[in-house]
């Protein structure tokens, strides 16, 4: 159908054109929940016995956030301030935002660096002249408590371990043969006896040294090119193998469900409560500071995993919008500071997706309790019962404290 020029002009002049256009129902942002990976960090330990860069080379020691990592999370906080300035107050208000981190130094420090960008102190908020940072509450589980939300990979689950070990063993058989020459040399050079595919994770940490310009003491094998492996460098190959090992932990619905099902349930449940108006002491924003394995488990449980690693300071965002009488959910993934976040679309739900459809889509994936997870993990019923009682008690106390905090 093509409108003749005279008719088009007539409609524009008379305003009759507007009757041909369907009314646009504005959508209103009502809730945001996000989870990010911590920033750049030091290795967890000495990458290999002969490594010249010991803990003294790292300003804050093993596993701690670096200056680069702090800047990465500060940038993420500033991005959130720019993006959601219309939605949350520039001043921290406890009734608006709740921030939680795993009980690890790098996640807690990342959350603090994030708030320095999200809530910069200026004007009357400056508690010290010239100081742009201000203390903001960060919540975490008590040391040693199972953390199903921000560090589910640390939860004991024998079934999950068996699934991962079986796949890892198959990969090891293949790559131990394919890269036997390189592995033999690495065993001699690194001090790791019988070097194999299962040692690539520790060697990968040499990349962290290179990022921080720790180059002068690096041995030749770090930069060696291997003609028999398409002239790739040692670290290129190690990085590829480490990625395969990491993705193998989550690349099936069963593995992802066991580890990420509870976290996905948290997002879905909060979305439903927002839509139903049943969230007690509702917040505008819930923010989780966590780890790459946590994001991977969530993404694969959602069915949107892409077999790629999670860069530092990457964030997965769930936005809930009210549109007319309904509620829509949009998932966004930001892993690149140079472009807008990627829409995360499940082909069975679309973008945006209604909250009701999302809840139905993931109804067979989510896990509503620690006991549910442990049953799927194959934990003996009596052991599960003891653990569940303790977890129920701990979660009950935590819920009470959070309720008091929110009130």
UniProtKB/TrEMBL annotation:
<dbReference type="InterPro" id="IPR000560">
    <property type="entry name" value="His_Pase_clade-2"/>
</dbReference>
<dbReference type="InterPro" id="IPR033379">
    <property type="entry name" value="Acid_Pase_AS"/>
</dbReference>
<dbReference type="InterPro" id="IPR029033">
    <property type="entry name" value="His_PPase_superfam"/>
</dbReference>
<comment type="similarity">
    <text>Belongs to the histidine acid phosphatase family.</text>
</comment>
<dbReference type="Pfam" id="PF00328">
    <property type="entry name" value="His_Phos_2"/>
</dbReference>
<dbReference type="InterPro" id="IPR050645">
    <property type="entry name" value="Histidine_acid_phosphatase"/>
</dbReference>
<protein>
    <submittedName>
        <fullName>Acid phosphatase</fullName>
    </submittedName>
</protein>
<dbReference type="GO" id="GO:0003993">
    <property type="term" value="F:acid phosphatase activity"/>
</dbReference>
